[in-house]
Amino acid sequence: MTDSSSDEFDSTAPDQREIGREMVDDSTGLGSVMAHAYRGEIDRVGTWRQRLDETTKWAVTLMAAILTWAFSSTDNPHYILLIGIVVVTIFLGIEARRYRDYDVFRSRTRVIQENLLANALDPSQGIENHDWRAELSRDYRRPTLKVSFHEALANRLRRVYLALLSVLLVAWVFRITAFAPHQDWLTTAEIARIPGIAVIAVVGMFYVVLLGVTFWPHERHAKGEFREGDSDDWKENR
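== DUF2270 domain-containing protein ==
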């Protein structure tokens, strides 16, 4: 190992980056510190994962209540469903912000898993990033968000919210058409003095924007996403 009393420190040096190999051979002070740090990061990941789930749970609960009330009587206004779309979109924004914080701690755990734990289990494969200790140190000194708000929105839309908002859209279309068969659907879509065609145009543009945010191609910066590899590889390699 490099002399710990020296002012010179090269995190990319073989004896500094391969601490996972040392953890297999003997117990080191740094290995113990990293074990405690890893447990702490895992706990933070779990806490922020629960916060994401709580936001989704409230969005689903509110959506269910709105759908139930909207179709309980033909006298109930259709725009309650549009209010539901707005409220669920607000929850989407809240969850996207929480996802950015969640990703900070998830990224740290992935760095440790890839470069420390994986190397300890199989040192013959080496490490993913030779400068991982310096990068992790910089992030501990000055924590930074790893993904943009746009990427966080796209992630939560793909995983949860596009489906929820699609259900509300289908329910609204059904509410102003089949649920009111004796009225023209453009007339039914009116809100106070706002013409039905204007309401439909605004709703249509909103969903076009949602689809653009969700599927517009862009470079992903979130670390550790389950996006690559074949699901059968694990069984074949066992």
